């Protein structure tokens, strides 16, 4: 993997759902790149195309126009479980498995032995302050803890790119800030780029680069989102 190349590149990538008169344009033709070490907040109201763009970048969906490539990684088949990790908004832990088994599972599926996968999983849990939850079932931990476990699972594979799709959307603001802390720390530890979609300006303002989506149209800014007046105006317009 070459550090000089983009981790992911979208070239006029667009996504339309349905056909004919019932077709819905989720993402208009979009050009963007994510470079190694990037910290990007992706903001916009519900239905603006945030999840669609992240799913294309993760290789979970195909564009209906244009293309998505991963120059520094390789082909789409090379993305998982190691190079690109996705953290979703909703619960993604497997209920019958313990916390450590949930974190270890992708590593086992990638060919690690059970012992090695568990050792790596335990290390990732420890880095996030979750070692004490290793033997608990998902139903025995809080929503915020479950999201942190999902981050540990993503981190365990030492990804080059972490894509977080509204990971704080079901949490209160304090818990959301904790999960954001964890994501930033995990990206720093793994040396990974991080792109997080959010509707919370208090989270977005922690990122140097902000991509804004409105009705499937992408714009980019490095403006100071910590300005309370600007943040208030933007947040009120996105919450409609």
TrEMBL record:
Species, as recorded: Paraconexibacter antarcticus
Stretches assigned to the ABC transporter domain: 8-240
InterPro entries tied to this protein: AAA+_ATPase, ABC_transporter-like_ATP-bd, ABC_transporter-like_CS, ABC_transpr_LolD-like, P-loop_NTPase
Signal sequence bounds: none
Keyword Nucleotide-binding: yes
Gene Ontology terms for molecular function: ATP binding
Name of one Pfam family that matches: ABC_tran
Keywords: ATP-binding, Nucleotide-binding
Source species taxonomy: Bacteria, Bacillati, Actinomycetota, Thermoleophilia, Solirubrobacterales
Protein name: ATP-binding cassette domain-containing protein
Domain of life: Bacteria
């Amino acid at each position: 993997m070459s550090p000089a190349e983009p981790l992911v590149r979208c070239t006029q990538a667009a996504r339309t759902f349905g056909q004919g008169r019932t077709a819905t344009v989720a993402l208009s033709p979009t050009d963007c790149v994510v470079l190694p070490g990037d910290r990007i907040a992706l903001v916009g109201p519900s239905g603006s195309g945030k999840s669609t763009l992240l799913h294309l970048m993760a290789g979970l969906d195909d564009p209906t126009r244009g293309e998505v490539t991963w120059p520094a990684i390789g082909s789409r088949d090379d993305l998982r479980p190691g190079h690109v990790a996705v953290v979703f908004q909703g619960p993604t832990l497997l209920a019958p498995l313990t916390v450590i088994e949930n974190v270890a599972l992708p590593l086992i599926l990638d060919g690690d032995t059970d012992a090695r996968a568990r050792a790596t999983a335990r290390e990732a849990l420890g880095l996030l302050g979750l070692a004490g939850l290793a033997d608990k079932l998902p139903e025995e931990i809080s929503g915020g803890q479950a999201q942190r476990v999902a981050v540990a699972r993503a981190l365990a594979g030492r990804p080059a790119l972490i894509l977080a799709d509204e990971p704080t959307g079901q949490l209160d603001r304090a818990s959301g800030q904790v999960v954001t802390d964890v994501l930033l720390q995990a990206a720093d530890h793994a040396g990974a780029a991080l792109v997080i979609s959010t509707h919370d300006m208090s989270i977005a303002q922690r990122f140097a680069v902000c991509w804004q989506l409105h009705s499937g149209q992408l714009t980019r800014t490095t403006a100071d989102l910590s300005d309370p007046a600007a943040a208030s105006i933007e947040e009120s317009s996105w919450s409609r």
